[in-house]
Amino acid sequence: MVEHTPLPWRRQTEGEGYAPGIVRTDDVPCIADCGWYLPGDNDAMEIVDANTDFIVRACNSHDELVNQLEALWGWCLNNHADELFAGANFMRAAVETVLAKAKGDNHAA
């Protein structure tokens, strides 16, 4: 499997040929383009800015969130599984599905 562009990702700044919706790294000038807007188009500006910021935050925190959730989940299963899941198997299935999706399993329910 091919690896994604190394982290951290960030927004492009004005000194880099500014386009407001560009997600990049220091070495890769465009990972994602979340759109553009004309000066004064505040509605479009807010959407482009929100999408750009969301991609940067989500991607930069993804691996750490998955690792921490796996560690917590492992601890729960090893120490309190009977108590945690008594009558709540839906929770176990939900956590396992979320982890599978976060790790790239596109077939997770």
Largest sheet, in brief, is: 3 strands, antiparallel
N-to-C terminal Cα separation, in Å?
A: 22 Å
Number of domains: 1
Strand percentage: 5-15%
The topology string of helices and strands comes to: EEEHHH
Taking all Cα atoms into account, the compactness measure Rg is: 19 Å
Kindly report the average pLDDT value: 88
Structure summary, number of beta strands? 3
Q: What would the principal axes of the Cα set say about the shape?
A: elongated
Supply the helix-strand structural class: mainly alpha
Total number of helices: 3
- Fraction in helix: 40-55%
Uncertain regions: pLDDT < 50 for 5+ in a row? none
User: Strand order within the widest sheet?
Assistant: 1-2-3
Annotate the secondary structure layout.
Blueprint: E1 10-11, E2 22-24, E3 32-33, H1 42-79, H2 81-85, H3 89-102
Antiparallel strand pairs: 1-2, 2-3
